[in-house]
């Protein structure tokens, strides 16, 4: 009994002091961890924005022709949705076909399915798109796709889109001043408050594709000029009235070859004198396509010694060739034997040609701003 009376517990004052010490220590630890936690959240957000930007760049490059060939809102077959989304498959209904969600300044939350919008990116990322759909603050990331834009480069019109990824930060709101706007020459992403973001500039992709295609066209033109010159030099008579860019059909001024001396003539066919009514692959008689070259219907790849990639534009479409229409000098236009030098042309139809180029390619002086070409001139 006496031992029990000698036992002492904590007094009220001691308990209060202990609690105060715990609170103070907790506050100190929390105040120290808070900035670190926010720093970690910002780092995670920046990494996810970078992953998304890299993924959409890869997606864009793989589908650039389809994406940039799409018409703006309000056309017969709109593929740029009214909410700023890009329809990657126009055959599917929204939102299943759309990439992109709309976020307005002051919106507290994004009610659209960001996971659904990011689904086309899954082949280009190692993480699940559901994980990339949220920033480091566990808020949905905004995905904005611009309407189709264009810039003219060396007289050629390049269509493109821009894509922006925006984190609304800790407050989960687009702060006033955050904008994704057209400044007249390009899209600009402006960030305010604690918003962070990254933008993919589609013009850079369009420009790179244009430059690569022009390089391939110029190589083909140079190879065709060499072919013409060699065919001319192999002839004993070296007749400058002959167009060595194509074979003689019996009724044209093409290369007849020299069968008596074992020369059956060139393998380059004569293309269509009249291209047709539209700026499309179907209107041009021949394309550089090694897949059909072995059948004998198209032999340009064989005579020029090119592989599959060199015969296609940067978007993967077969390049065009013209050695007979009114757009080149063949010596056969309107039945008049025009004087040399003769010419031929290699071309490519860039995204947007189907809607931009209204005049027929056979119309004198007609220009298509999305048709690029390199000319070969026969040298004697």
Describe the fold and architecture.
The chain is of the alpha+beta class and 380 residues long. It folds into two domains: 39-194, no CATH class; 207-377, no CATH class. It contains nine helices and 15 strands. The chain has helices at 2-6, 12-62, 64-68, 114-118, 129-132, 202-233, 290-293, 300-304, 353-356; strands at 86-87, 98-99, 142-145, 149-153, 156-160, 162-167, 179-182, 187-190, 196-201, 243-247, 254-255, 286-288, 319-322, 343-349, 371-377. The strands form six sheets. It has a four-stranded antiparallel β-sheet, with helices on one face. A hairpin with a 2-residue loop joins strand 4 (149-153) and strand 5 (156-160). The longest helix has 51 residues, at 12-62. It is elongated and about 125 Å long. Residues 72-100, 104-112 and 289-297 have low confidence and may be disordered.
What would a concise description of this structure say?
With 380 residues, the chain is an alpha+beta fold.
Give the terminus-to-terminus CA distance. Answer: 128 Å
Round the Cα radius of gyration to an integer and report it.
33 Å
Q: What is the percent of helical residues?
A: 25-40%
Number of strands: 15
Strand neighbour order, sheet with most strands = 12-13-14-15
3D shape: elongated
Helix segment tally: 9
Uncertain stretches of 5 or more adjacent residues: 72-100, 104-112, 289-297
Structural class by helix and strand composition: alpha+beta
Mean pLDDT: 76
Q: Biggest sheet, in brief?
A: 4 strands, antiparallel
Number of domains: 2
How large a portion of the residues is in β-strands, by DSSP E? 15-25%
Order of SSEs = HHHEEHHEEEEEEEHEEEHHEEHE
């Amino acid at each position: 009994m006496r031992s029990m009376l000698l036992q002492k517990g904590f007094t009220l004052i001691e308990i209060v002091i202990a609690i105060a010490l715990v609170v103070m220590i907790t506050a100190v630890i929390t105040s120290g961890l808070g900035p670190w936690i926010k720093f970690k959240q910002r780092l995670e957000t920046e990494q996810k924005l970078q992953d998304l930007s890299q993924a959409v760049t890869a997606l864009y490059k793989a589908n650039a022709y389809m994406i940039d060939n799409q018409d703006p809102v309000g056309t017969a077959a709109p593929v740029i949705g009214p909410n700023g989304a890009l329809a990657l498959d126009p055959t599917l209904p929204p939102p299943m076909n759309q990439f992109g969600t709309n976020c307005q300044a002051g919106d507290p939350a994004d009610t659209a399915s960001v996971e659904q919008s990011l689904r086309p990116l899954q082949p280009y990322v190692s993480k699940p798109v559901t994980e990339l759909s949220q920033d480091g603050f566990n808020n949905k990331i905004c995905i904005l796709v611009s309407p189709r834009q264009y810039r003219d480069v060396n007289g050629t019109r390049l269509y493109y889109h821009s894509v922006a990824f925006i984190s609304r930060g800790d407050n989960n709101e687009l702060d006033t001043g955050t904008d994704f706007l057209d400044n007249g020459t390009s899209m600009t992403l402006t960030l305010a408050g604690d918003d962070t973001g990254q933008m993919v500039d589609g013009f850079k992709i369009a420009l790179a594709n244009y430059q690569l295609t022009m390089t391939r066209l110029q190589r083909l033109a140079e190879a065709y000029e060499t072919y013409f010159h060699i065919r001319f030099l192999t002839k004993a008579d070296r007749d400058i009235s002959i167009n060595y860019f194509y074979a003689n059909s019996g009724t044209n001024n093409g290369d007849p070859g020299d069968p008596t001396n074992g020369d059956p003539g060139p393998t380059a066919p004569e293309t269509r004198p009249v291209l047709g009514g539209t700026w499309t692959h179907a209107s041009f008689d021949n394309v550089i396509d090694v897949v059909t070259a072995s059948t004998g219907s198209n032999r340009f790849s064989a005579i020029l010694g090119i592989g599959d990639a060199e015969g296609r534009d940067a978007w993967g479409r077969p390049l065009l060739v013209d050695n007979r229409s009114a757009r080149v000098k063949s010596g056969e236009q309107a039945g008049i034997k025009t004087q040399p030098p003769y010419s031929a042309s290699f071309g490519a139809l860039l995204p947007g040609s189907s809607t931009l180029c209204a005049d027929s390619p056979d119309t004198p002086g007609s220009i298509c701003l999305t048709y690029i070409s390199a000319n070969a001139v026969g040298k004697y």
